[in-house]
# Entry
Amino acid sequence: MNRVSTKDVMNRVSTTLNIELSILKSLTSNPQLSTDKPHAAVVEVENLVYAYSQQEPVLQEISFTLKKGDRVALMGATGSGKSTLLENLIGLKQPQTGKIIINGIPVEPQTLPQVRRQIGFSFQDANDQLFMPTILEDITFGPRNYGISPAEASDRARQLLADFGLEAYANRSAHELSGGQRRLAALASILALEPTILILDEPTNGLDPAWRRHLAQVLLKLPVEAILIASHDLHWLGRVTKRALVLSGGRIQIDSDIQPLLQDGTTLDQLGLPIDW
Ligand SMILES: Nc1ncnc2c1ncn2[C@@H]1O[C@H](COP(=O)(O)OP(=O)(O)O)[C@@H](O)[C@H]1O
Ligand SMILES: [Mg+2]
# Structure
């Protein structure tokens, strides 16, 4: 049975906290995240190999670079390793071999606080992101811990709740929300920290077409350096991203502009991604 252990939940909570806390810190004290290098590498992955314990590698020889301004889709059939790769990028999992470099900093246990202060990461399961008694507290949690005044943190949170149609739910707990509403609340808690790199795992899960459109509009307006989005929502990805990485057989089989790829139903089908299903 696929049960999540308490330790796993605590790990995820602590990761979320670290990420959220560290991002805000970066916004107030990290001027090296400059805007003066338009083509600088923001995320570099070189020859990454990752295997779950006692198993064959699920990711092999993964190499790619995200540059400033990139909006990239991470595609691949269910089980192709998208979530595993994203969790490697934020240091939640450690590759067996290979390098990950975020804004010039190699991802290693001792650099994790530095690395995570640059990244806004949303888990595939929004429940992993929401742990406070109310949604409002979930969204103010990170800013409050970085010294933003209660009034300002609350104003920012209420604006985000309004943006995501959740004003009426501010004082409810996550388990009283629908799956789609939890997804939006989790995204609000990340955006409250105004991250410079955004990594989202299946952000449209549970959202209806109107909210998927709204989320696309929100993401397109965000002033972030790079966005990487894992999703199987191909048409939506085509509206939000410009480039696609496709995982299959543990490797990146395609790294190309997304629009021509979305026109190539045969290739997508071969990669386990039938376009209209
Ligand atoms: N905790 C785990 N232990 C062992 N194998 C895992 C674990 N999590 C995922 N896997 C396996 O790793 C592969 C990739 O999973 P995942 O990264 O979740 O894929 P995706 O996000 O593309 O659906 C799958 O075969 C999955 O069964
Ligand atoms: Mg996944």
Remarks:
- The radius of gyration is 18 Å.
- Residues 82-83, 124, 201 surround magnesium ion (ligand 2) (CB under 6 Å).
- Strands lie at 41-51, 57-67, 71-76, 97-102, 105-106, 119-122, 197-201, 226-230, 243-248, 251-257.
